[in-house]
Structures are given as structure tokens and as C-alpha cells.
Specification:
single chain; alpha/beta; TIM Barrel; Jelly Rolls; 8 helices; elongated
Length: about 450
């Protein structure tokens, strides 16, 4: 049996877009990594509005939102019982505020999935480096977050690990952390340093051209065709040079072209995009970032507005009963074309010459990821020509090509680890997507 996603993994992959909110003490010290010696009185957002965060996220197509409840400096954005280094000793809301609570309420109101980032590394906590003692402390805080704020869809751990006050490195008890999550939030996905979602291997937002969601038990950044577990990739990147808000970066928000390129190389390469948009010292998403996000959403909506292959006549070299060629072009995510043997060919009659420069292919990944090699050919005025040769498809593959005008298109599955289930073949023409960004 080939590995398949859990219902939670499948929903996460189908969502495609997650937003990261790096917010905390670093926002007020103008740093990326704090030292844990900061005065809690420095945390004082003047107009914090978690509803603004979630409204922007929802408007721009994000389905999951993840907040840094505690970063490496150890400062906690909730009313924790286990340290004084938290919002309870800040002037914000007269020490009675709880960012995590306001965030969780805003997520529920907006219908978004809530995620929590809790840094294992803690530069403030004195037990850090005394592994058994600190693991108890960390589990206590994790339990608070999992039991007081409603449903948690994703718990995000990075692997940062430094020396504690005693000069020793902390040994994280990952298995105990996982057990606590499974106990209190059994549907939550455990990301990055966890068994459900893996890191893609860079912070540029780019997946590999060949990106497998199946893995060997020993991690590899881009998966393995012979993998035995389902462990899909997440591409994390910040909309700014830094992860926390810095006023001097207001003019350094990534360009529209850069963000579009990131989308094609993350979501368009069988991954989920986790885009960081850091709230500022007011506790609001900054205007330059919000403007760029809205431009980006508008551009994506324009690019994918018209599928030139939708409901066009389709034929195949072979097909399983009830899984005919037409199911690859009917726009229904619950249907798919399944051939009887390989190699297998699907041909779409576009009825007239049309020009396109984006090819979208999708597998029905509820039953696994199978395609290892494929080609796309186009029938032009001068005959059939090769438009694209690729490897993996997975949830979604977006191939940008030089514009081609064709009356027919042919997808050939050359190689697969099992008979493929192709749920969608779509064609788009987008003038703003340049060939120079291909790859």
C-alpha cells in the first residue's frame, strides 16, 4: 500500500496558503532574536486588533494563520502560569491582555484555522539546559495553549537549540511533546519538527521542481519516490527581509513579481506556502504589506480566471470504468481520470486555436502521489511540439512556458509508482507571468 494523507493533511494541502504572524517582544526591540533579558514593560502595542489580521488573511485567500505565541526570547503572549516573562507584566491592557485569546477568537469569527508557534528554545527560562526540568516546563506551557483556546489546527516547532544558563544544550523530548498534542488536540498537525508537515529546506519560499509528499522514515528535504510515510512540504518565507516588523523595511516588502514567483514555486510545486506578514508596533498588519497582499490576490485571481481546457472534449489511451478522460477537465475536484496501463495519454480538443502559457496538472492525492514523469505536447499550426517535460505532479503542478497557440493538448504520463489519478488538467493565458521566471 502506498502512503496517503490523513484527512487533516489533505485539508491542509488543499488550503494551499497559510499566514505566519511573527509578533512579540522583538517587535518592540527592533530585533530578530531576543536574548530573554528584555523588560516585559516594553511590550505595549497601541492598537492591537487581531480581527484586522484575520480579515486581511481571509480576504487574500489564506486558510490557516499561525501566531508566534513564544519566540526564542521566552516572552509569552498569553497569561501563562509558569513564568513572569509574559504579557501579564506588560502595560498592554493593564496586564490583563492575552494576545493568543484575541487571536483565537478572531480566527473563529473569520472561519480560519488557528495555528500556534511555540519556540522550544527559551533564552529566558532558567531551567533551559536542565533537560528534564525544562521539558516539564515546556509541556506545561504547551498544555496551556492546547486546552484554553479552542481548536488548534497546527502546532509549529522549529529546531532552534542553544545553550542554557548552565552551559548545557537542551535535549528536547519531542515524543512527549507529540503525545501531549495528540492527547489534547488529536486533529492538530505537527509541523517542521514533527511527523505531519516537513520543512522544505530553505526560507525562500521555493520547493524543488521534483517534490514528493512521500518520505522515507529518515528525512530528506524533497521526499523520495519509494517513501513509506506521507510527510508533505511547507515553504516558509517572509514578505519582508526580516521575520519581525522593522520600520526601516517598510520600503523593502517583496515585489508583486517576486510573490507571484514564490507562489508558482511553492503551491505550484506540490507544497503549501506559509507567508509571514509581521504585525507592527501598533499590533496591526502594516499598510505596505496589506497593499501588496491585495495586489497579489488580485493578480492570482486574474491569472486563473479562465481555464481554457474546462469541459472541452477529452479522450484517453485507456481509462478505468467510471474514471474516463472527461473527469480530468470537468472542474470537479472529486473526479479523476485513471488509465489502465502506462504509459498513458490524455488528449484535449480545444475546438479552436487558443494561446496559453500556464499548464496546471493535479493528482487526486487522497489516494496518494504517483506520477514520476510526464510530458505535455501541443498541436500548433506547424504540428505537434513539446511544451513541457516534468517529473512530479502531486496536489498541484504549475508549469510556466513560452506562450504557445494550439488546438489540441496531450498529457502523457510516462512513469508512475502506481496507476495515476489525474483530477485536473487546465490551461491559462497570463500576460503578467513572464517566461523569464520559469523554472
Amino acid at each position: 500500500m502506498h502512503p496517503k494523507p490523513t484527512p487533516q493533511q489533505l485539508a491542509w494541502q488543499e488550503a494551499e496558503l497559510s499566514m505566519f504572524l511573527h509578533f512579540g517582544m522583538n517587535t518592540f526591540t527592533d530585533r530578530e532574536w531576543g536574548e530573554g533579558t528584555e523588560d516585559p514593560r516594553w511590550f505595549n502595542p497601541s492598537a492591537l486588533d487581531a480581527r484586522q489580521w484575520t480579515q486581511v488573511a481571509k480576504e487574500c485567500g489564506f486558510k490557516y494563520v499561525i501566531l508566534t505565541a513564544k519566540h526564542h526570547d521566552g516572552f509569552c503572549l498569553w497569561q501563562t502560569r509558569y513564568t513572569e516573562h509574559s504579557v501579564k507584566n506588560s502595560p498592554w491592557r493593564d496586564g490583563r491582555g492575552d494576545v493568543v485569546r484575541e487571536f483565537s477568537q478572531a480566527c473563529r469569527e473569520a472561519g480560519l484555522k488557528m495555528g500556534i508557534y511555540l519556540s522550544p528554545w527559551d533564552r529566558h527560562e532558567r531551567t533551559y539546559g536542565d533537560s528534564p526540568a525544562y521539558n516539564r516546563y515546556f509541556i506545561s506551557q504547551l498544555t496551556e495553549l492546547l486546552t484554553q483556546y479552542g481548536e488548534v489546527a497546527e502546532v509549529w516547532f522549529d529546531g532552534a537549540c542553544g545553550e542554557g544558563p548552565n552551559g548545557r544544550r537542551q535535549e528536547y523530548d519531542w515524543q512527549s511533546y507529540y503525545q501531549v498534542i495528540r492527547k489534547y488536540q488529536p486533529k492538530a498537525l505537527i509541523a517542521i519538527c514533527g511527523p505531519d508537515i516537513r520543512w522544505v529546506g530553505n526560507e525562500d519560499g521555493y520547493a524543488a521542481e521534483t517534490e514528493w509528499s512521500v518520505q522515507d522514515p529518515v528525512p530528506a528535504f524533497h521526499g523520495n519516490v519509494s517513501g513509506k510515510v506521507w510527510w508533505p512540504a511547507e515553504c516558509d518565507v517572509s514578505i519582508r527581509p526580516g521575520w519581525f516588523y522593522h520600520a526601516h523595511e517598510d520600503t523593502k516588502v517583496k515585489s508583486l513579481e517576486h510573490l507571484l514567483d514564490i507562489y508558482f514555486k511553492s503551491v505550484g510545486r506540490n507544497s503549501v506556502l506559509l507567508l509571514n506578514v509581521p504585525p507592527d508596533r501598533r499590533g496591526l498588519l502594516p499598510e505596505p504589506d496589506v497593499r501588496r497582499l491585495r495586489e497579489w490576490r488580485s493578480a492570482l485571481d486574474e491569472i486563473f480566471a479562465t481555464n481554457l481546457a474546462l469541459n472541452k472534449p477529452a479522450s484517453a489511451s485507456s481509462a478505468q470504468r467510471a474514471h474516463s478522460a472527461r473527469h480530468a477537465v470537468d472542474g470537479n475536484p472529486a473526479t479523476y481520470w485513471m488509465p489502465r496501463e502506462l504509459p498513458a495519454m490524455l488528449e484535449i480538443d480545444l475546438r479552436k486555436p487558443v494561446t496559453f502559457n500556464i499548464i496546471m496538472t493535479q493528482e487526486y492525492i487522497a489516494e496518494g502521489q504517483h506520477v514520476e514523469a510526464y510530458t505535455v505536447d501541443a498541436l500548433t499550426a506547424s504540428g505537434w511540439q513539446r511544451a513541457k517535460q516534468g517529473t512530479t505532479i502531486g496536489h498541484k503542478k504549475l508549469d510556466r512556458i513560452a506562450p504557445v497557440t494550439a488546438s489540441r493538448v496531450r498529457l502523457t504520463i510516462e512513469k508512475a509508482r502506481d496507476l495515476p489519478l489525474i483530477r485536473n488538467v487546465a490551461l491559462y493565458h497570463a500576460p503578467r507571468v513572464s517566461e523569464a521566471k520559469n523554472g
